[in-house]
Amino acid sequence: MRVTLETSGGFTGLRRHATLDTDLNDDLQSLLAGLSAAEPAGAPAASAQPRYRLTVHHPTGDQITELTESEVPAALRPLLTELLRRATP
């Protein structure tokens, strides 16, 4: 499964992008689905925190989750860390 990360915000405001082909376990897929369902409607408020947009590309359609640094669950941190390691401007 392909996962794409787009970052924005933070103190530098630098936008970065990364894509990773990986197998997401069922727990991580459920976590991402729950986060997507819980997101409020409307534009996100401006913040000095980095903002992450994760897109999981499913055969049936893309699943998009947007989070700020403080909202990232511990279970998602290893995937986010790997994507950030690969991210380029």
Structure write-up:
It is built from 2 helices and 4 strands, in the order E-E-H-E-E-H. It is α+β, with helices and mostly antiparallel strands and 89 residues long. It has a 4-stranded antiparallel beta sheet with strand order 2-1-3-4. Strand 1 (2-9) and strand 2 form a beta hairpin.
Summarize the structure.
With 89 residues, the chain is of the alpha+beta class. It contains two helices and four strands; from the N terminus they run E-E-H-E-E-H.
- Share of β-strand residues: 25-35%
Report the count of strand segments: 4
Taken from the alpha-carbon principal axes, the silhouette is globular
| Mean pLDDT over the full residue set | 84
Rg:
13 Å
- Helix-strand makeup class: alpha+beta
Individual helix count: 2
Order of helices and strands: EEHEEH
Low-confidence stretches: none
Keywords:
alpha+beta; globular; single chain; 26% helix; 4 strands; four-stranded antiparallel sheet; 89 residues
Which secondary structure elements does this structure contain, and how are they paired or packed?
Layout: E1 2-9, E2 16-21, H1 26-38, E3 50-58, E4 61-68, H2 77-86
